[in-house]
């Protein structure tokens, strides 16, 4: 029966390598005759060495448990992890979610983005007024299907809001770091990426891959740190680097049911979870799980319990950004709220595959 190296290695925790060696060496060394002590020492050393080397090949789930011992791995992540070595492969496709709200603060609001939230398609003149920051477009804000951005005061018990599904439905799988690091991830190597996934360079999938890679290559704003981890292990490492501790709580939105794409929700409870610096990871459209992770500004994090008109129960994570002074003034948040950068804090919900890392 062949040895499953991943399972064998997953039983070893890196923090135990030297500890185990020292323990067994000190307890048992003196019990052996002198002529066997050298052989015993060598055997224990080799066992510890194998455990440490195996650490590089442990599963993403075990890596999480070792690095973030205080935070259970969220279900939305666990469900998309490879269950065996046979699952470690990529399909010739790009996975799409329903929304990409997290990236809307960085670029000018586009016609497609406005059309998604508007009851009627914007005409050319209306879109021009929006991008020019005109205050004469109050009809535009009053004619929205829903508001993806809102103010902290809007998070109050009893309020009824219109909102689309908080299930992003992006089923791109997480793959082990040693696997994805062998695949190029750079706009300079776009032909190699498309060739690896057998994607036609003129297709929508090719355009999506290019857009995602370019988003990940954009420079950070002042005071911000950002990275696009291509594996769960890289995401964990970046959270530890950014937050400076492994005392971290991890929050995600949870949805029970939800059949309608857009419906009314009644807010039943608002609970503040954190206040300070955190890291937020937004899942991007790609051929495997890639997240845009960033942080640096002061935020408030809330868990908002809501119930939909169809009985759907939602515990939605809401992030309220206190300082928006460096956001794009023509971005969708300011279009929706008729506000200017730095004049007010801005909040938004996270879909169920977006992840908050918060120190405690």
Automatic annotation (TrEMBL):
Signal peptide per UniProt: none
Pfam families on file: BURP
SMART domains for this protein: BURP
InterPro entries for this protein: BURP, BURP_dom
UniProt xrefs under PROSITE patterns: BURP (PS51277), PROKAR_LIPOPROTEIN (PS51257)
Record-given protein name: BURP domain-containing protein 6
Species classification: Eukaryota, Viridiplantae, Streptophyta, Embryophyta, Tracheophyta
